[in-house]
Amino acid sequence: IVTGAGLTKTMQLHKSSRNFFIPVRVLGKVFRGKFMEQLQKLRSGNKLRFPSSCGRLKDSRAWSGFRNSLYEKTWIPYIKETFNGFGNAIDYLGRYTHRIAISNARIIAVGDSQVSFWANDYKTGQKKTVTLSHEEFIRRFLMHVLPCGFQKIRYYGFLNNRSKKASLKLIAKLTGKMLSQARFASMQPDEILHVLWNINLKQCPMCSNNTMRYAGRTFVFRN
């Protein structure tokens, strides 16, 4: 997610134009340059591992030719405006950035040698039961674990962890708006959802009547 504003070197807020955000072609060239620069650093530091299919790239001449071929290509970043503000973008990304490989609710049974769970059959659009051995289940689960050194989410600009708190306070002061924490301090969770993303928890998803009330929570116990 790229913000539509940022702090300048003089700590002033600079907003993007309503009709123009960023030049896509320029962004592609900048990304290509940054990516290739870091790739070359890894190569120079002997930190790249070449499988047998790419073994020829260990040779300096072959590597130079390969790198030049990448520079000659047009790198096209895919940028798209959200359909309905920022709410749906956050909802979409949140499904992937803060979830695990499989939730407990999908696990049906765990036996001495097998695990059974629910899965979506994309051919039929229906749910189906999948049974795997313990070893295969663990193997598939570990495929979702990021390699050492990889980070799922990186924050930059005024959202970087080092200066985020001070930057957000400054932006709130410059724009004359309250920070989210202060704005929503007196609101209930359902009220916050309604203000931010127009999600009405009191509205029935079937008949659309505002008659739903929170009664409590219950838990399903598994044998």
From TrEMBL:
Domain of life of the native organism: Bacteria
Stretches assigned to the Transposase IS801/IS1294 domain: 1-164
Classification of source organism: Bacteria, Bacillati, Bacillota, Clostridia, Eubacteriales
UniProt-recorded Gene Ontology molecular function terms: DNA binding; transposase activity
GO biological process: DNA transposition
Protein name, per record: IS91 family transposase
Coiled-coil zones: none
